[in-house]
Amino acid sequence: MYSIIGYAETREEGNMLLAEYNRNPWDVDRAKITLAELFALWKEKKAQKLGESNRLSLLTAFKHCAALADLPYKTIKAYQMQDTIDNCGRGYSTQAAIKNFWGHLDHFALELDVVSRCYSDLLTSAPIPPTTRDRFSNEVIARIWAHQEEPWVDTILIFIYSGWRISELLDMKKADVDLAAGTMKGGTKTKAGKNRVVPIHSAICPYIERRMLEPGEYLIQQEGHQIPSKQYRKIWGILAARLQIPGTPHSCRHTFESMLDSAGANRKCIDLLMGHVSKDTGNRVYNHKTLEELRAAVELIKAPKNTANEH
Asked: Is 104 considered catalytic here?
């Protein structure tokens, strides 16, 4: 049985009418649909097309906008949206997630002709603070471990327990990972940092092994292809908002160095692992003894209990 959606004088006009209906088939009362109702429809029609982390971040962001839930969406102004960001009582990552939420809802409302302009384009949120040399607290690290099996969280742990720069790890090919020897080789930026060898910490070894089994050339990849730094930073932002992780991916590198220092690793090993120029001019020789010293230094860092290596 067929439903009549309208009439057209020509086949071409009929095809255009059908295409328009297929583009926007939802029957909504545009004047009365509330934020909560629009959000429910968005979850049904759009949310499943997003990645899990992004979707969860947006679902969480809605909670900060619940005071406006019963208002007709078309009546919500930019200043009210901005208030949900300014008064959320959270840091830059959560503010960014709320701003992102309004962007998704606005564009969906525009698609449905509920609104004629996107006020979300006028919104602002706290900027990402400049990278500091402060390491992640033990509480933050424990929180990350608590979510270790969620998508992409393993990459944060790999960063924390290896000290690679974001470009270094994303550029690393599987050919540069030696599971038998338990090492990763890579590095950029400086002469001291290139082609350095970092032993794989036992806590992150299961995640390295898991990623090595995935199809594709690179260790960290998305759908079998190398993931660009810009795309990974978006993933990081979503995870940071949801797990309340301060800083940037580079903060993982500072955390690694700080944990090595706090654990009592000698400076020569720290410099080798970080790719820093050392006062010891002979420390660039990666002989067997040096690798064992580096491995011992890395293992001085103790991961929280119930981590992946204990599964």
From this structure: no
Does 191 qualify as catalytic in the annotation? yes
Residue 165 annotated in active site: yes
CA 297 to CA 8: how far, in whole Å?
Answer: 76
Compare 95 and 39 and report the one with higher pLDDT: 39
218 part of the active site: no
Closest CA to 302 of 250, 260, 253: 260
Residues 297 and 161 in one domain: yes
**Which of 100, 94, 102 shows the shortest CA–CA distance to 126?**
94
C-alpha torsion sign, points 191, 197, 202, 208: positive
Enumerate residues 6+ apart whose C-beta is below 8 A from 100.
57, 58, 61
Residue-level length of the chain? 311
Q: pLDDT tens digits, residue range 158-175?
A: 999 999 999 999 999 999
Domain boundary among 96, 122, 148: 122
